[in-house]
Design goal:
Radius of gyration: 28 Å
Mean pLDDT: 87
């Protein structure tokens, strides 16, 4: 496993996601200050290569330099803030998610094993007492 390549791929995906979030922020800001430009940017973003943040920025810079620089600025600011918390959040999130998956899996296999052994009368344990034979 090439951890450097995994890190590069992860960084590229994160940069593209931050580009997408930056576009959303700028569209929301423009909706209040310049609705026509917000509509244009939203339409441009649905037609463009938003999944690849770097290709999207290159296209946007050709179409509207000011918006391209604005989105790059927002993206850079977000990257600084997000990466500060990211390592701990990712590690903690994965640990908690893995623990939850293991718990659910254990519950599922335990219930499956219990139902299989309950269906076999030789090994089943009568879980409900016979209430007719209780003495006062």
């Amino acid at each position: 496993m090439d951890l450097k390549q995994v890190a590069k791929d992860t960084a590229k995906v994160l940069a593209s996601y931050l580009t997408y979030q930056s576009v959303r922020i700028v569209v929301a800001q423009l909706s209040e200050t310049n609705p026509a430009l917000a509509i244009w940017l939203n339409e441009f973003s649905t037609k463009g290569k938003i999944q690849d943040g770097e290709a999207y920025i290159q296209e946007l810079l050709r179409e509207n330099q000011d918006l391209g620089f604005r989105i790059m600025t927002v993206r850079e600011y977000m990257a600084h803030d997000v990466t500060e918390y990211l390592p701990e959040m990712v590690s903690t999130g994965i640990q908690q998610a893995n623990m939850e998956h293991r718990r659910q899996h254990l519950e599922r296999i335990t219930q499956l094993n219990w139902s299989v052994s309950s269906s076999n009368p030789e090994t089943s344990i009568d879980s409900e007492p016979n209430l007719d034979n209780l003495s006062s």
